[in-house]
User: What shape does this take?
Amino acid sequence: MTTNQNQLCDDRVQILFELTDDKLTIKIDDSLSTEAKVFACYLMFNQTTIDKQGYRKEREFYFQIRKPGLYRVKVFTLDRSTSKKTSQIIDLGFLFVLSQYYKSNRPRFINESFTQRGREFINESKIRLGDFSEYKFDIHEFWAADPFSNRTWRWHLHQLTLLSQLVSAHSADSKDVFLEEAYRLLVDWHEYASIAVSDKMLWHDQGSALRLKHICMFLMYTLSVGFVVYGDTRFVFILNLIKIHLAKLKDDSFYSQFTNHGFDQSLVLFQVALELEYILDLKEEITLAAERIQEEVNFVFCSDGGHKENSPGYLSHGIKQCITALNIERSYNERISLFKSLETVIAKATQALCHTMKPDGYLPLIGDTTYIKQKNIFHSYKPINFPQFQYALTGGKSGISPRERFFVLPDTGYAFFRSHWNKANYIDAVHLSLKAGCLSRGHRQDDDLTFTLYGYGEDWLVDGGTYKYDDTDPHRKYIQSHLSHNLTAPLDNPIAKKMGSKPKFVKYTKIEEAGGTIFYLHATTEMFRRHSYSRKIEFRVPSEKISIEDEISHNESAEVRYVSRLFFAKEKEVQCGTDFILVKGKRKSLMVRVASSEKFSIELVKVPQEEIIGWLSDTKFLLYQSNLVQILFDHTAKPMNVKFSLEFI
Assistant: This one.
C-alpha cells in the first residue's frame, strides 16, 4: 500500500512523506535552504521516540514501520553558520502496515481448512469447530447452543474461531459477504455477552485470550482489505471490544497464574499490546505481559527441563508456548532480548521431549495426553539440540542420535528407560516411562508411580489418557482416579490428594555387570492415605528383561487388602494363569510373572461400558475397553510386596 501526503511545517519548510509497504520516506523541501543547513528526523508515537536519524545534508529519511499506528515525525533544522536550531512536530496520522507477526502467522488464520469451514457456514449454515462434526443451525442465535453436550465445543465457539474461518474464505473468494457476516457475528456475540452474564464460557480464562487473538487478527485483515477504515464505526466498535478484552487480561483477578491457561493469557496480552502499541499506548500492558511470561516459564519448567503440568503432552505444548514468546518478540523487535533466557529452557525441555517420545513417535498416554503423533514444533526457531529431536521424530532417518538410554528428570518426576537408539531397528526399541509425584494442580491425575511400556512396534501397558475435560463425567472421574493406572493400591482406601507432593526418587543409577547394564530406579509416594508405597524398577539391556517390585504398607499396621492393576493395550490377547500373565502381540508376546509372599489371584476384567471399569481413552471424547488384569491379594497387616518380571518372548 502506498500513501502520499503533504504537510507544511511553517511558511518555509515543506514535509512530504510516502509509505510503500513498510518503508516510510520523509522528504524535506526548504525553499530557503543554504549549504550550511542540515536536518535530522525522529519517528514518534505521542511523545515517545521510536527511531531517530541524525543530522545530515541529505533531505530524505527512511524508517521501517513495523506495525499500524498514529505516527508523527519531529524534524530538526540546524544552521551551522549561525548555530541556530529549530524543530517541528508533524502528525502523519494513521499509517497501516501488516506487521511481521501477521505476515509470518498468516497460515494459522488463513488456510484451506478454515476456508472450507467459512464457506460451509455461509452456504450451508454449518458450524465446524475443532475435531467436532458439523452443527447445522437454523437461526444465528447459537451462542447458547450446546449440540454435543460438550463444554469443549462451546469453548471453541466462544473463541470466535468463526472470524478466522470467514476471513480465510474471503481471502480465497474475495466476497464481501464473508466479512459482513463476520462483523455481524462479532456484534451479535457482544450483545449476547451483555445479556447472558451467567454463561461461564463467555469469559473462560484461556478462551477469552484466544478470542482476543481472533478479534485482533480480524481487525488487521479488514484494515488491509479496506473493509474497515481507521475511525469509522466498525473500527471504533472492534477497537472498543479489544479494549474490553485487554482490560480483562490485565486484571490480576482474571489471570490464571502458573497454569498453561495463564501462560496463554500472557502471550496473547503481549502480542496484541505490541500490535496496537502505537494506537492505544499500551506500554504498561507490554511490560506486565512480559513479566508474567517470564514468571510462567520460571514456574512451569523445572531445572531439569521437565514440565510441571503432569502430562507429557503439556511438555510439548510448553515448548511451543516458549517459542511463541520468542517469535512474538522477534516479529516486533527484530531481535530477542527480553526472553533470551528462554533459549536455555527450550534446549533442556527439548532434551526431555526426545526421551519422552516413544519409538513410534507418540508420547506416553500419561496424564491428560492424547494419542497424537509428535510433530515438528521447530520451524522459525531451532534449539541447539534440534538434531537429536529430529532423530527421535523421524525414527533415526535424520539428525543425530541421543546418547542416554536411561534418562531421569529428578525435579519433575519422570524416568525413561530405553533399550537402544539403533537406526536399523529403531521402532523395535523397548521404552518404559514412569511418573512420580506432583508439582501442580494442572491436569493432575492420581497416578504417582504409574508406568507405560512400549516395544517392538506396539504398546503393551497403557494408561488412562484424557477422554474429556468434564470433571462431572463418571468416565472422566475414573480415568483421573488411581483406579485407571498401573499401580498397586489399597482395595478400599481413599486417595490422599497430595497435590503438592514433590517427586521422590530414592535412588537411580546404572549398574554395569557382565553381559550388560541394569538401569535401576527406586521411587516412593504417599499418595494413598495412611500408606507408604514404593516401586523399584530394574531395566536390563541388552536382554530387555524388566522387573518391577512394589512394596506398600499401612503406616499404623492395620490389616488391609491390596490390589495391583495392569492395563494392557486393547488389541492384545491376554491369558491369565495362577502366577503369570501372557500377553500376545503382533510379533512378540510379553510374559509377566507375578511373585508375592501373600496369596493372590489373577483375573482379566471385562465389563460393559456403563460399568466404567477398564474403559480408557486414547482419543478425546472416545472410550475403548482395555485389557485390565487385577491381581487381588489376601488381607495383611504386614508390608505387602509383589514383584512383576517382564520378558518379551
Notes: The first strand starts at residue 2 and ends at 8. Residues 99-256 form one domain.
